[in-house]
Amino acid sequence: MPPGSRKVAITGVALADCGRVDGTTPYALHAQAARRALADAGLDRGLVDGLASAGTGTLAPAEIAEYVGLRPTWVDSTSVGGSTWEVMAAHAADAIAAGHANAVLLVYGSTARADIKEGRRTGTLSFGARGPLQFEVPYGHTLIAKYAMAARRHMIEHGTTVEQLAQVAVQARANAALNPEAMFRDPITVDDVLAGPMIADPFTKLHCCIRSDGGAAVLLVAEEYVRDCRTAPVWVLGTGEYVSHVSMSEWPDFTVSPAAVSGRLAFERAGVRPEEIELAEIYDAFTYMTLVTLEDLGFCGKGEGGSFVEKGRLTVEGGDLPVNTDGGGLSAQHPGMRGLFLLVEAVRQLRGEAGARQVTRRDGSAPGLAVASGTGGWFCSSGTVVLGR
């Protein structure tokens, strides 16, 4: 085939053990997720000639490749926080389409919760105070404070209420209740969210993602390998990536996330309109992330996110745009850079393999189009991937 002409599919997805996972290492979780994803696809490890990983060790992905027994001829270690995996998926799809790789494994593992529990220094390291951050760190401007400040700006400019933000957490938990793998499944109410301990105004505890252990893996392959796989392909239709800022002073508008650019690019390249999407997996380290990303992906107008989410639209049961169908980072799992979990859940939904939380069309069939959009840093970067079966 001419370079750039090959279609690209995701044929293997898997989670490692997630939630409370003591007595293991991030490397073991990488290996567990990788084995499960390859088994899911039904492809031999020897066919994998590309590897993408970040967040572990000093020589990722070389260390991970060695640990899982791969010798890739194409690698990617792009690290842009939570959006890393959507950006890596875009790079992998481009490489496969161009003939630079045939099968690329994206893999991640983290013991973020266990590190805190055991008092390991790695569990509480900051982003540091070098480079541009040196101008904000002395004032105690933490990551969560940056998100909280952005949320407050949206509330001031558009009248968004804390109750509307709380609805994001409530509906994520409703979806998690259907997911046996979710870390927290008990129902919560808006009042529960509002009554929690204040973390960074306007965020109480339940506005914030959980901290868990876990891992995930996704295998992308060229179209000619699809016939050898045991699973139905989910095609990568379009991708987009964008880097906005690091310093808050360089962020032009706190009410616009980088998904406004990455989403537009992904939809244009896929030839798909937002209104055609049947479910969305959105990075949700905080409730505001979900709300503003919904706006910037075009599911509602700017400033309309609050009224959009308060109508119960995000739930699997009864929602017209199910979002974070596994419960998201707010309830299911969040072991650090969670973007890879978005792709796993989107693929499972498109295959019709999501069990009690399965999104269905009116005729009972599985959905045909999904979007996964990851955010990194404090709205510093975004990667968006449109998927279809």
Automatic annotation (TrEMBL):
Thiolase C-terminal domain residues are 240-389
Q: Which Pfam families match?
A: Thiolase_C_1
Q: Which InterPro entries match?
A: Thiolase (IPR002155), Thiolase-like (IPR016039), Thiolase_C_2 (IPR055140)
The record's section on PANTHER family has: ACETYL-COA C-ACETYLTRANSFERASE (PTHR42870), NON-SPECIFIC LIPID-TRANSFER PROTEIN-LIKE 2 (PTHR42870:SF1)
- Which named protein is this? Acetyl-CoA acetyltransferase
The record lists the organism as Streptomyces pseudovenezuelae
